[in-house]
Each structure stands twice: as structure tokens, then as C-alpha cells.
Amino acid sequence: MTDIIRLTAAQTAEKIASGELTAVEVTEAHLARIEAVDEKVHAFLHVDREGALAQARAVDAKRAAGEPLGPLAGVPLAMKDIFTTEGVPTTVGSKILEGWLPPYDSTVTKRLKAADVVILGKTNMDEFAMGSSTENSAYGPTGNPWDLTRIPGGSGGGSAAALASYQAPLALGTDTGGSIRQPAAVTGTVGVKPTYGGVSRYGMVAFSSSLDQGGPCARTVLDAALLHEAIGGHDPMDSTSIDAPVPPVVEAARSGDVRGMRIGVVKELGGEGYQPGVVQRFEESVAVLRELGAEVVEISCPSFVYALAAYYLIAPSECSSNLARFDAMRYGMRVGDDGTRSAEDVTALTREAGFGAEVKRRIILGTYALSSGYYDAYYGSAQKVRTLITRDFEKAFESVDVLVSPTTPTTAFPLGERVDDPLAMYLVDLCTIPVNLAGNAAMSLPCGLAPEDGLPVGLQIIAPALKDDRLYRVGAAVEAAFVKKWGHPLLEEAPQL
Ligand code: GLN
Asked: Which one of 82, 83, 132 would you pick to mutate in the ligand 1 pocket, going by the greatest count of ligand atoms within 8 A of its CB?
């Protein structure tokens, strides 16, 4: 059993295709693992045992009938609880959607089902994806498998923790300001934010629509690429979906070569305020890139220093509008509907009871920033900063193929450390936010453990829009170099649960 859960997604699919393993065996091994460890980790909000086994049986039947199997057929996946799943609870980590059974599948869910991926269940997350530690979930926090007293990152901490504790070889996340990359960094896993519009948002509960992007999470670069290809591509149901083929990410992940590439180190994303062990591992990664044959130069992106401020105006503004739909009439919770109250009062009572503190804080901030008289000063200025950041990227990519930085300024911090200090929590996404504002693509992958605390550090690779394949090309090369150097993937170092 232990061996099955430690396989990569690519290996698992191969063994199922060759008949060495059945999809049911693989699914049962992961369900047993969930049973054994998830009480401690709390990666899942809902485990769909019956649904997963039914999907697995269907894969085995297909194979028995001699039908062709896709590259991820029978591979289990943990899905962030932000993607709708027909008939399976979808809470977005909020009380307001407790008990809601979506009547439809998100496009990503549909594509995964069509690819014969086995969906094990839905993972924990900060409420409405607002947060950096998964502590804003209405259903309690998730622990980091490296140290259960520490945060697994956020908002997609459940998905990252499921990977790092071998409860699933694949997971799905969404990244509005870093929620795929930051959890990947602090759990020693791989996470990719595709180019905006590269993966459909249809059926992905909206937080900040101009920033939200679904993407793949895995333990290896190749596995992330296989998942990226399965979920990516044009969707007529999403008006911001890109009408172009998915970049050749799997091919890039298989080739992994940086010879002759020009790589820029972002001057503004590093240095003072960064944990020494994070800086040390990042600098080692840069040295590895040089050894592998890349030319590394320093690049300045002067507007990045305003990214965090702009993000915390734009994201709350869009959320204040998006979350207006939770009005007690359409979905989920309804409080105070006893026949004596007006619809308006019921809406207010429901929102008061159903939303947590951080969600309310953002709705209030956003409503204020968008109000007449303040709109230009706040939202308007933030949009201008967004343009400046996009220009910084454009200029940088005139001279380099990709940019690199640490993914996060620190390793995983203790649960509870920042819950009462929203500003300290917001700083966690310093390095990831510029990419969401500009809409291009980025990956985080493990680059070692910080010597002072023995916890994983993430390397961020940033590519121009639509050049997602470059992330995988560089990521696979770095990953191979590190595995060679350490003798095994980084996760082998994680304590056994
Ligand atoms: N931590 C950031 C926030 O709280 C980003 C969240 C995300 O990417 N969903 O908004």
C-alpha cells in the first residue's frame, strides 16, 4: 500500500495502463491513507469515497474492454473546494455554502472526469480563497505535513497538504494572488499559476475575477504538466478564456533544458526582510541554473513595490461585487426567514452569520474603495499601478526568457502567529502578486530546506503570458539537478505521519 501512494501521477497512470495496478487498487490505497492520516492533517473537507471508487471501476472496465486510456486515467486527485462538483458538496471554505449541492460541474471538473481522473474529494481552503494560511477556513485549519503546528500555506493549503502527506498525487488549486504557489512553496510541492485565461473559470467560485486562475498542483513538474494539459484550453463558457491551444507543457517538462536561456533575477523580490535560509536556497538555485548553462542577469522591476497595495484594493473591490450573489435567496444558508422579516433583513442576517471576519473585512474595504468620490483615488490608482507592473514585465521579457525569485519571504510559520495581524498575513504574497496583476504565468517548485528550521523553500519561475511551457522547461531542469544533488525528491525528507 505504501508504495502505491508514493508513486508519481505519471508512474501511476503507466502502471494502470500496463495492468500492473488497477485503478480501484490505487484509489483504495489513497482512501486508506486519507483514513489513516487526515484526522491529523485535515486536508479534506469532504471525501467522496463512493464517487471515487465508481470512477475507478469505470477506468478498469474501460481497460478491460480494450478502450484507449488517457495519460492520467485512474490517477487520484484532491480538488480545492472552490470548483463546483455536481451533487458533491462545494463550500469554498465558508459556512454560507454549507450543505449546498451544486447542480452542475465546473469545466475543470468535467474535463477531469472526461480524462478518467479519480476525484477523491474536496480540500480545505481559506474562506472564498481569501488568506495565506488556510486559517480563514470556516471548518478549521489544515496542518503542514512537515510540522503539523505550522501553516500549509493558503488559500489552497488543503490541496498542498494532501500532496505532501501522500493522500493524493495530484491536486487542483486557484491562484488569485499566490494561493497555488505559496502553499506549494511551504509544503515542498509544485504549483503552477497558468496564464490568465489558460484554464476555464466556469464553475470556479469567483473571488476576484480579473485575477482568479485555476491551475495544477503536484509533487513533480511532469505531473503538474500532465494535469495542466488535462484541464487547460479554450472554454466557450468562460468569456475570458484564451482561444488558443494549451502551450506544449508536457513536452517541455519532458525535455527540461535551460542551456542558452536568459534568466532574470528580480531585484525587488529579495534581500531585506527575507528569511536568511530562504535567500541562501534561492541563491543556490541561481547557481544551479548557471551550472546548467543558463545566463543569469539581474533585472529591476521598479513598480513591483506597489503590487501588494494595488492588489489589496483590486481584489477586495472585485470580491465586494462578486459576493453580492450570496443573498440568502439563491444558494446555501438562510437565516431569520420566519415570515416576519423582509427579504433585505434575511439577506443581512444570513451574511452576518455566514461570512467570516476576513471576508467581511474585504467586502467592506472593497465597497469603500469603489464608492463614488473614492473610486478614482483608490480603485483607479490601483488599476494604473497594474498597468505599470505589466510594463515592467514586458520590458523584462525583452531581455530575458524567464524571471526567478523566492516564492515566499519565509518558510511555513506557526499556526496562529499571524491570524490577528491581517497586514502581516498579506505580506506573505509579496512575490506572487505581481504575476496575477499582469496575468502572466508562474510556477513554484521546491529548492531545498532552510537550514535554520529544516522547512521547505520554494523557487518561483515567471514566464511571459502564453509561454507557460517555459516554466516547465526550466522547472524540470532544476528539479532534475536537485534530485541528483540530494539523491531523492525533497519530500523524502518530510517526517513520516
Ligand atoms: N493571500 C492572498 C489573498 O488573501 C491570495 C489569495 C489567493 O490567491 N486566492 O487574497
From this structure: 132
